[in-house]
Amino acid sequence: MSEVKNILLCGVGGQGTILASKILSTALVAAGYDVKMSEIHGMSQRGGSVVTQVRYGDKVYSPIIGKGSADILVSFEAMEALRYLNGLKKDGVAVVNDYRLPTATTLSGQETYPADCIERLKTLVNTKVLDAAKIATELGNPKSMNIVLLGALIQLMKLEALDWDKAIADNIKPRFAAINRKALDAGIAAVAE
Amino acid sequence: MKQLMTGNEAVARGAWEAGVRYASAYPGTPSTEILENIAQYREIYSEWAPNEKVATESAIGASFAGGRALVAMKHVGLNVAADPLFTGAYIGVNGGLVIVSADDPGLHSSQDEQDNRYYARAAKVGMLEPSDSQEAKDFVGIALELSEQFDMPILLRMTTRVCHSKSIVDLSKERTEKPLVPYAKQDKFNPIPAISKRLHTKVEQNLKRLEEYSESSPLNYVEWGEKKIGIISSGVAYEYAKEVYGENASYLKLGFTFPLPMRKIREFAARVDQLIVVEELEPIMENEIKAAGIPCIGKEKIPCEGELNPDILRQSLLGEEHETIRYDASVVAARPPVLCAGCPHRGFFYELQKMKNVITVSDIGCYGLAPKDIAICMGGGFSVAHGAQKIFNSESDGTRKRCVGIMGDSTFFHSGMTSMLEAVYNRSDILMVVLDNRITAMTGHQQNPGTGLTLAEEPTHMTNIAEVAQALGVKHIRTVNPLKPDEVRDALKWGMGFDEPALLITRWPCALKKMTQTDVEEFGSLRFVNRVDPEKCIGCRACIQTGCPAIEYHADSKKVTIDQIQCTGCDLCAQVCPKHAIFREEKQNV
Predict the structure, then answer these.
(1) pLDDT band at A43, cuts 50/70/90?
(2) How would you class B368 by CB atoms within 10 Å of its CB: exposed for 0-12, middle for 13-18, buried for 19 or more?
(3) Domains located in chain A, CATH noted
């Protein structure tokens, strides 16, 4: 019986966390896993902090995980990784996008954006830093930043053998399929050592 | 075929499979996607109703005429629909009728945390509670069967986690067309007191029969594990209990939760050492089980506030916690949801905030993210302002407080029209404002009676808010572009200068709206961006005061920049810049 694995994806509304988790869960279902995925709608379009949880294994009960339970945390925005770090297991992996989005409170000057958030993260947990925006832009489509991060997740969770071409085809318009496959491979390569 | 689906998608699929002919709803998180998904099935007539009461009434009409019907709403929507629900429970159905209530434990997107399981008890109708998407799909068909068998509407109670979580659903079943139940004139459709007395007797008898169904229903089943602990649970709370206890407990899993199967519960309780009732929000099952003389543990350990999760159960029942990484989280800046870049509401609130002695009475919508003094419920903006203004007017401390009632286009049609009539009829002197952004924005852009399109995006009559107000007796009406602060300032002053109710309509499309041809004709194609001339910018931050998330001030250069991806070129910042350092241009390459 395979143990249930827990994945946390976090970021800011509009960054594409939901599409990335859709592709991920499509491939997991096709591979025969029981899968549950949870996200909260409502405020996500309005620049709020967003988090998606994906769980897979032989049998999954709760659609949500608690504190200290995620095997991997993928943060699409630098500071958001620190917001959700308490969801990660002590020996889990944090993948963080070196990409900063100010918040309403930092824009107005009420609060300061923690410039050292990635440095802090590195001292706390096994951290992989990616400049997914740069990688995606170099590939010719800055919008596929989310798929680059998904690639990193796939590599770290050892899920490369799943049918990603089909999962991409099921969730993305055909004319964007090839570029997103490239983005996925670039993400895999970025954390493979 | 197996597919991952949200609970809401699964309810839609279940309605399709079960031969539902008619579906109606007013959008509200977490229920909105039920109707959006039903609309994709051509065999079902589906619609957005102006509010939950008329949605329920129209579904009742469809049921009486012999078709299977479904109506969906968020938990507070059922308060609006409570009137037809209660008498509808007496009358019963012809074609099956299922009423979906999507509760929001944890208030992810709501103003209260009410537990609508009480409604089944109060209205005396059966209730089903799915735990995952497979059950959400299957329970719709079962609810319709029960509705027809027991002659009552059935409540299907969802919660945010069931609505919005995805789990695997078996889609091997196809649609079964249900022939219409023939309509015949019946006494029960006319609930005058003499008839309703008999109907009440029928309700009590049907509830007794339903109790027997609950005892034998396969939806209420036992899973034996360790017998030291026995857990009774329903909905998503059952999944949390399984997550925490696994095989170390036995479970009585309840899918049909009103009336409770008390014999089954008693037998289960007798075979376990300790009985725990795991339920989210109120101790409803717990109280009924205790009243039946069966000892159990519940809310003395598990909190009755907020959404449950496996951590809360683990901590409250076992005193255990997962180890977490310890760190200083105080450096993380808050990231609250804000009005979007280009949101037309921003211009209105920018001016309103500058006015003194104004009490802002708002209702439910995106504009709730802007500063306000008071809000209670949908459509309440004008009537609450009216009541408050009457009292403020009797004050003689020299500062005359002025109430400004605010609502959106969709909430005006929902229940704001009667709120407006209250102000007109009772000689109010408030300023009423309708922030008409041409769509129901908060719930993700649903059509409403003012947009000129139906749920299926078919053209329909575009109800005009100013004409409605005129017909209701409002004499002073002005419509402005909220992104023109000069116009707004002038109109606010104008609107507060009467001793009668005045109406200010701000009319401009939501920045995220998919523009229709009609919108383009009225507002233009709106393909602009604003930029800052760094030579002219003096770093005064006047533009920052608009609260636009696309504008950033850089302390090092003492200049602002505008994020070109977020910016919609609404031009509000340019109009408040004292140095004319912000300019607007056509968006390129879009």
Answers:
(1) low
(2) middle
(3) 5-191 (3.40.920.10)
